[in-house]
Structure formats: C-alpha cells, structure tokens
Design goal:
20% of the residues lie in helices and 28% in strands. It contains 3 helices and 8 strands, in the order αβββββββαβα. The structure holds nickel (II) ion.
Length: 187
Amino acid sequence: MAIKPVIRMGNPLLKEISKPVTEFDSASLWSLIEDMKDTMLAEEGAGLAAIQIAVPLRVVIFSVESNPRYPDAESVPETVLINPTITPVGQEKDTGWEGCLSVPGLRGLVERDTSIRYQGFDPYGNPIDRTVSDFHARVVQHEVDHLDGILYVQRMENMQSLGFLEELNDSGAMNSACQPCESKQAE
Ligand code: NI
C-alpha cells in the first residue's frame, strides 16, 4: 500500500472508459483499494476513482466524514463501490460546487441529479444498493463519471463559474464555509 500520484486533466488516461472488475476479493483488488484509500486520505479528497491513480478499473471510493474540504457536508460512510450503475430518482436537479483532485485548485458549478439510486458491489462481491440524495449523490455521480472518462468541467453548463478556490473564496462567490481549504494548494 502506498500513496500514489494523482494524474491530472490532460493525461489521456482520464478520458478512458474503465473496465469492469471480474475477480472479487483478490490480492490485486485489495492492493488497489489500499492504494486508493491511502491516496484519498493524503489528498483529503471526498472520493477517488481508480483511474485517477492510473488504474483503468471500475472501482471508486468515497467518504465524507469531517473532511476539511467540506466542513458543512453531511457525513457519507466510507464506501468501496465496484462496477457501479446509477439511476436517477425523480426529476429534481441541484447545482453545486465541485472540485477534483485531477483538476487541482479549481472549483466550478455543476448540475447533478439531487437523488439517485446506485448499485454495485463491495470488494467481496456483495451487492450494494442505496438510494441517496444531496452531497452523497453528488459525490457518487462525480466519481462514476471518472469511470466513463468524464471530468466535472465537462458537465458544467456555464464555464463562467470555473475558478481557483482561493479567488472564489476571496470574491465571496463561494460561501465562506470552506475556510480550512484556503491554505491548501494541493488538494
Ligand atoms: Ni474527481
């Protein structure tokens, strides 16, 4: 297990469609998950897709518990989600700020489904089936997009909101809830 470099926008791997995991509970899968957890923790991310550490498999992890980047976010249990599918629940959509470890320093407004059902598997191959809303739903949609080669900036309807976190904070464009992340260059 190790902290791996997070590849950034411009690396062609981030445009690839990741492949499904075919063997669960394998040494290589557990090793990948450990690397992803170590990397996400070190970078203080809310989530990470395997492709962000250059492994093109349909594995995402996410966790939102006392994350200094999202001090007001509701807690999301640490989840390893493999071969996920997403189904929107209802028509409602929300616009909210997103950042990405592969697009360091920036934030932009993205419209997402407010409520979704997501299904997939844990590392043992046990099914996961949850219906969630708000920030939890946003994180999962963002991470699963990575598996299809999509970064949040490609989901932005109005590029005018895209900016560096520090500038957005200084200008008051974002609410001031993100004070702890102001001092962080790397995300
Ligand atoms: Ni991301």
